[in-house]
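User: Can you predict the 3D structure for this chain?
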Amino acid sequence: MLEFNNVSKSFWTGTQRKVILDRASFRVELGHSVGILAPNGTGKTTLINMMAGLEQPDEGEIRRDCRISFPLGFMGGVVGKLSAMENSRYIARLYGLDPDYVEAFCRWLCGLEEYFDQPLGTYSSGMKARFTFALLLALEFDIYLIDEGMPSSTDVEFNRKAGEILRERLRTTTIIVVSHQPETLEK
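Assistant: Here is the predicted structure, written as structure tokens:
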């Protein structure tokens, strides 16, 4: 379960105080996925980051009684100077998982071939998105956080494999998606 109790969050823009949340309370029970639709600039990414523990509220309490993913597309855990192989093994160790399994899973899903052993800093944006999405799926969570939808990839095989894994996970996990597009939430 993920629960916000009287959570407030705001930022100073230089001219005014922008309120993201004002004493918000809600609960996300496992097994019930949630979509949040809001215009750009209203704090969707801040909300997702607060759910993940990457940002703290100004006041109130956030309870996390389950394993919550980092936001899909968040590159904070990977290092551009390291290869996908090195990053996958490093992240596996952080989460207490078998580095051999996480590396093999990401190699298989990404289909990056020899680029898997090259620094992430040399990747195209599509290659980085495939790797971080594969890494997200290699780590099993109770709640997956998705900011503005799934990564777009022109790699048909990656889309097929990742789609199958995600469909299977939907049976046993919860997904929280934030977007400004209703079509994204419908998917």
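The beta strands are 2-12, 17-28, 34-37, 59-64, 143-147, 174-179. The CA atoms of residues 93 and 130 lie 20 Å apart.
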